[in-house]
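Subject: mismatched residue count in predicted assembly?

I count 384 residues in my input, but I want to confirm that the predicted structure covers every chain. Input:
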Amino acid sequence: MNRRSALRKRLQHTERELRAARLELKQTRDNYQNMVEEVKDYAILLMDIDGNILNWNKGAEKIKGYTASEIIGKNFRLFYTARDRASLVPEQLLHSAVKDGRVQHEGWRVRKDGALFWSNVTITAIHNRDGQVTGFLKITHDLTDKRLAEENSRLYTEKLEIKNSELEQFTYIASHDLQEPLRSISSLAEMISEQYHGKLDETADTYLHFILQSVNRMSQLIKGLLDYSRLGKAKLDPQVDCNVIMETVLADLQSAIKDSNAIINVKQLPVLSAYPMELKLLFQNLISNAIKFRKKDQQLYVNISACLTDDGWIFQFQDNGIGIDQRFSDKIFEIFQRLHSKSAYEGTGIGLAHCKKIVAMHNGRIWVDSIPGEGSKFYFIISV
Ligand code: ADP
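Triage response: the counts match. Full output below for your records.
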């Protein structure tokens, strides 16, 4: 074989390799093009430097409603609302993409049929080898459903908050106004019982006694309601030392602790962001309950501790009192719900409802683990 024919053979071989490489490149490009065209959840399109549309995929057709033949060659400003176009939002987006390489934007866009959809758009500048911007890649995601769900949930929360504050106001006014006539009944009954003492028969005296007792109880219930509606009016304090609050509570409950001979062990408590007055009431209610629902024939121990978890501080108030049947573990946190008659244990059934509301104010929750006859463990979380 002479040199010439060897050279020709090499040339033919190189040409074959080149053809194969071109074919592979075309296939890769076609695959890529097909892949982009097939994507249905995102509108992926190329635009020239002025924002004129160069290609269209299925996602774009689904989201914006135009077919490729209707839209290719048109300007992307078409997708913006009249208001956005008047304030030059599309131009500003292209400008930012040129300046920063990429820009993101969320807002209402217009479909072919005029309907609006909420879109999240990313526009990325495409550069040539000299670093000049030659066009843009625009990716749009339709977030209308998410946006509407968020909007609905926001409106629902707003409505709930309004209803809640109306209800609190109503409770406050009702309980405040109820106290006045009750005071009159109470003082009139007292006057009758003093001024007519001995002049009425025994049955009348007994009835009067019951009237005064009932008035007294109703007054306690109304006071509980008033306190309940007043909760949460205070300000959040970023640095509340729970140890200091606990000391005050124990000092306030000193005589009850002494009378019941209770032993109260308190471990180191945290400093956290909280409503101090409400936190004091929470501690106070749980300790008073432990004292009230103790076993009369056994030394009462109350152990109080707190530990930090992923959800926030979990507090534990443990006692060895009479315990609670687990069937009632939710019921006891409802307002005016009690498990005993008032002759067995004094109370209004509002203490734990207070606790629940206070813990909710701290974005937490409260629950109880208990074995009847063995004691109860009250837990609550204060989110931090
Ligand atoms: P009250 O103490 O006025 O009855 P609460 O709302 O504080 O109202 O408590 C509701 C009920 O939960 C109580 O009546 C009692 O049956 C039960 N309870 C609360 N704390 C304890 C406790 N530490 N041990 C046993 N039972 C308890």
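The mean pLDDT is 90. Marking this ticket as 'not a bug'.
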